[in-house]
Design brief:
9 strands, four-stranded antiparallel beta sheet, mainly beta
Length: 106
């Protein structure tokens, strides 16, 4: 856990552009989210902190190949590195209020 929630998804065909975005749902409280993406070998592909507005994350990765991907989500700050290493604020009680959406980009 270490302040980060992990999700996985399978991209059945590629190359495909994929968008990852978060919103924080905490009864009007400000939640500054961060999202990071890894491929199946643990290579870090990218992250975003505030491009979604309101402190939320919005990241599009282009030309992803078919395969399994892993998404790390949490509250700012999060440190990402190679090998599925992501660490954030382990004492943050609001991590369960983050909503992650993953979709193919238009």
């Amino acid at each position: 856990y270490n302040g980060v929630a992990w999700y996985s998804f399978v991209l059945p065909m590629g190359p495909t552009d994929v968008n990852f975005n978060t919103i924080g749902s905490n009864s009007g409280s400000f939640l500054d989210t961060v999202v990071g993406v890894y491929n199946s070998t643990g290579s870090f592909l990218g992250s975003n902190d505030d491009s979604g507005g309101h402190g939320w994350s919005d990241l599009t990765l282009y030309n992803l190949n078919a395969g399994t991907y892993y998404v790390a989500v949490g509250m700012f700050p999060i440190n990402f590195s190679y090998g599925f290493n992501a660490s954030g604020n382990a004492s943050n009680p609001d991590i369960d209020k983050i909503i992650l959406t993953v979709q193919t980009a238009p």
